[in-house]
Amino acid sequence: MGRRSILGAGLALAFAGLAGSAMAHHGWSWADAGMIELTGTISSITIAPPHPTIEVGADGEIWTVELGNPSATQRAGFVEGAAKVGQEIVALGNRDADGATRMKAVRITVDGTVYDIYPERIPS
Predict the structure, then answer these.
(1) pTM
(2) CB within 8 A of 84, min separation 6: which ones?
(3) Cα(54)–Cα(41) distance, rounded to whole angstroms?
(4) Residue 79, exposed/middle/buried by CB under 10 A (0-12, 13-18, 19+)?
(5) Is the CB of residue 80 less than 8 Å from the CB of residue 47?
(6) What is the set of domains in the chain, with CATH numbers?
(7) Tell me: the pLDDT tens digits for 53-62?
C-alpha cells in the first residue's frame, strides 16, 4: 500500500469515528427510555448549535437540559429572550442513561408558557 493510500485510509477511519460520535450525540441512544420531570431555576441559557441548552439548578445540583436542534426549538416558540436567568422552569424529558445530571427535554414550561420541543414524544 502506498503512502497516499495509508494516509487516505487513516483519514477515512478518523472521519468515520467522528461521524459516529456525532450521530450518537444527536440521537436518543444516550438517554434513558423513561421520562422524568425536573423543576428548578434557570442559571444559564445558550441558544446555539448543535442544541440549545438550559442550565437548571435543582436540589443543589446543576442540570444540563438539552433542547432540540435550533430549528425545532424555534418552531416550538422557544427563541432568544423567551426565558431569563432566575425564572422557574419545568422540563419533561429523558435523563442521561449514565445517571449524569443531563436530560433531553421534550417539553419545557417557563413562566406558564409551554414549549413542546418534541411533541411526538410527549406521553398522552
Answers:
(1) 0.76
(2) 42, 45
(3) 10
(4) middle
(5) yes
(6) 31-121 (2.40.50.1010)
(7) 999 999 999 9
